[in-house]
Amino acid sequence: MAFSLTTRKEIIDHLQSEALDLLIIGGGITGAGVAIQASSTGIKSGLIEMQDFAEGTSSRSTKLVHGGIRYLKTFDVEVVSDTVKERAIVQRIAPHIPRPDPMLLPIYDEAGATFSLFSVKVAMDLYDRLANVTDPKYTNYTISKEEVLKREPHLKAENLLGGGVYLDYINNDSRLVIENIKKAQENGGLMASHVKALKLLHAEDGKINGVHAKDLLTDQEFDIHARLVINTAGPWSDLVRELDDQEKIIPQMRPTKGVHLVVDGTRLPVPQPTYFDSGDQDGRMIFVIPREDKTYFGTTDTDYQGDYAQPTVTKEDVDYLLAIVNKRYPMVNLKLADIEASWAGLRPLIASNGSSDYNGGNSGKIATKSFDQVIEVVNAYENAKATKEDVEKVLNDLEVTLSESKLSPSSVSRGSSLAVATDGLITLAGGKLTDYRKMAAGALALITKLLKDQEHETFNPIDSKNLPVSGGDIDPENVVATLEFFAKQGIDGGLSKAESMTIVNLYGSNAARVFSRIGELKAAPGLSLGETLGLHYALEEEMTLTPVDYLLRRTNHILFHRDTLDDVKVGVSNEMARYFNWSTAKKERMIKQLDTAIATSDLRDLKAEG
């Protein structure tokens, strides 16, 4: 289905000429989740995003659909249960995006360690039960110190006790957003990027009935009218609330910044995702993830008050991460010059939810003594030396240290909040990428109730747990074989297996649409045929408007293919200029924008400072 610069004008015409049931402000993963469910329900909906889809936050995560095993340290069983169940749902509705990849958790005997070798086994067993992990390929197990070092010989051996291995999922965050957006558009939703809300509009009765917006590509201002408006602007959600001149706004967001750095896989070779304590007793854990012949690591977690649109990687961020990784991998001696790419993103945390890193509520922090008591009684129960009542008694008597009045950035809740202002503005804020579908389902339940109560319109609920995203028409139980089947079409058309697999991994079942252009398109100058096919699909069906959109968010070229980027960027820029018939001046602006994005990712300024 066409979803391009050409159709964008039609979308904006409809937005300003038709009254909607629902307008969504914010095109990250939360807004995209609401959009796909609302449009599938038959609700006449529109979405506006002031940047590219996913540009603000949802392309800047750790790129995992993470189960949150560390929350079992504080026995946030409900947290982990909900998270791993949602992770399974995301894998089912977007089977070409999250991929299982077992995580190694090395255990060290050191102060402030999250887990001991025994407690990690208890946690992983509980984790597998909560996640219903039964496939022997993915069930957890512990390994000795010798086996950990055999797998990762560069890891620090001193005080290493062994490790645990459990199931986690690699993710492509920006692809997940655009696939939700495309499906919402296909279902009749009106999805528009580069449209900014300037002011919230009110009806005569004082209720919000739309927004005054600006098309940032043409500078045209116009009104969009809707029965309901939902704010899903992530870190910007307080700023959207402040557009309401009839409400007294109390800020609720406390964004924190997370940074990730990318190096070549030969400089930091790891065979599988690895997750360990920072070793600084700061409550943080660090991921080291192999991906596409590169290795990336992060994250930081610091309060942020700068420009939300352009969070940057600072020298302090780099020094912090390099110090931790070099301490854990003392033989690699990574330096600033080794960093090939980077990204910084904001987490839309809600300040008032306490220390539980999930949907609201402060469970406090369990004291070490109490945690040891729980481990002891669980072990006794598993060996038939304690009863269920004994376990319950220990759990009921847990010694809990409540969070301090001033929380550290790492302990601020990443929970979500769904609220309705007195004049009707709905705000869905906070949460984590893994929970996006569940958050959207909660919002849709509220939206359908409000439309029924206020507008006497009834919309039948949908089963969003089985609502595939665009490209997701794949058997989730047989993903690899299905993708290989799609890839055969590309191979039969003359593409290499590697090119064909790259396309199916990006576009899922939509790869058939990409391959259908073989014979119709020729390789653009400077690009392979496979790259040309993918670029044209992105231009025609993914609202790709700039080289940065394509090379950073529709693909991961800027992040994980730095070796070939300098050549590919020329071919992509030239082909987009030809396709859109850009003037010389506009082409120069687009190339400058791309060069700036690459320089930022490269940390060129920090490297110049030495």
Q: Outline of this structure?
A:
A hairpin with a 7-residue loop joins strand 14 and strand 15 (285-291).
Word description of this protein:
One of its GO terms (biological process) is glycerol metabolic process. It is an enzyme of class 1 (oxidoreductase). Pfam families: DAO, DAO_C. The chain is of the alpha+beta class. It folds into four domains: 5-58 and 174-252 and 413-466, FAD/NAD(P)-binding domain; 99-172 and 254-352, D-Amino Acid Oxidase, subunit A, domain 2 (D-Amino Acid Oxidase, Chain A, domain 2, 2-Layer Sandwich), CATH 3.30.9.10; 365-401; 479-609, Helicase, Ruva Protein, domain 3 (Orthogonal Bundle), CATH 1.10.8.870. 40% of the residues lie in helices and 19% in strands.
Radius of gyration, CA atoms, in whole angstroms: 24 Å
CATH C-level name of the largest domain: Alpha Beta
Number of strands: 22
User: Which topology of the largest domain does CATH recognise?
Assistant: FAD/NAD(P)-binding domain
CATH superfamily of the largest domain: FAD/NAD(P)-binding domain
| Main sheet overview | 8 strands, mixed
- As a percent range, the share of helical residues equals 25-40%
> What is the mean pLDDT?
91
Shape descriptor reads globular
Q: What is the CATH-assigned architecture of the largest domain?
A: 3-Layer(bba) Sandwich
Quaternary class? single chain
Counting helices, strands and paired strands, the structural category is alpha+beta
The residue ranges in which pLDDT falls below 50 over 5 or more consecutive positions are: 354-366, 399-408, 410-414
Sheet-strand content, in percent, reads 15-25%
